[in-house]
Amino acid sequence: MDRLILWDVDGTLLSTDGIAAEAMRAxxxxxxxxxxxxxxxAYAGKTDWQIIRESLPTLPPEEIGERLHExxxxxxxxxxxxxxxxxxxxxxFPGVTAALEALGGAARQAPLTGNIAVxxxxxxxxxxxxxxxxxxxxxxxxxxxxxxxxxxxxxxxAARRYGQSFGGRQVIVVGDTPHDIDCGRxxxxxxxxxxxGPYSLDELLAHGPDVALPDLSDTGAVVAAVLG
Length: 228
Ligand SMILES: [Mg+2]
Prior knowledge:
Blueprint: E1 4-7, E2 14-15, H1 19-32, H2 48-55, H3 61-81, H4 83-89, E3 91-92, H5 96-103, E4 108-111, H6 117-126, H7 150-162, E5 171-175, H8 178-186, E6 190-194, H9 201-205, E7 211-213, H10 219-227
Parallel strand pairs: 1-4, 1-5, 5-6, 6-7
Antiparallel strand pairs: 2-3
Helix pairs in contact: 1-3, 5-10
């Protein structure tokens, strides 16, 4: 168990069918007022704080910083209110559960996601993946706005929990966007890209991951890709 697999959530493990993105936009409107223009921005691979900053370009960054906790509370409240819809409409991608189970005997596994921690928990809980990941060894969008900073945060948490260090290619980052690949590579981690999000296999391959897979449905291929 000398390896730490850090799984992205949206587009990699699951989809909420747009419920979470809609809740996020509603929360932004609730906090900044209905008149504030929300800029269109791609959400995939970005931290929640990054999405908020990019969505509200007319607000001074210091004001956004001060109001992030208000936003988090509004977002969480809206998602809690949508829990039934989340359970009904969210889906785990093919092979995810089998891959997590297969890798659980060989490595520690935690989320590394741009979601704020409470939101990551709700999403994983609603699709039944919570028991397969150690959330206390993960890193989240409220730990840092810049995704590459999340890898050492997760590694430090895992080290404290398991009493051993995880560095370099003992850490594997799995995700569905170039941001995931970049954040793993910036930290010397092994990177596995999966084309179940908005990016095609070719687009992901162009960013130079160690391995890119079309999806996670072939458990043997996933285990080989992750463990190398
Ligand atoms: Mg993703």
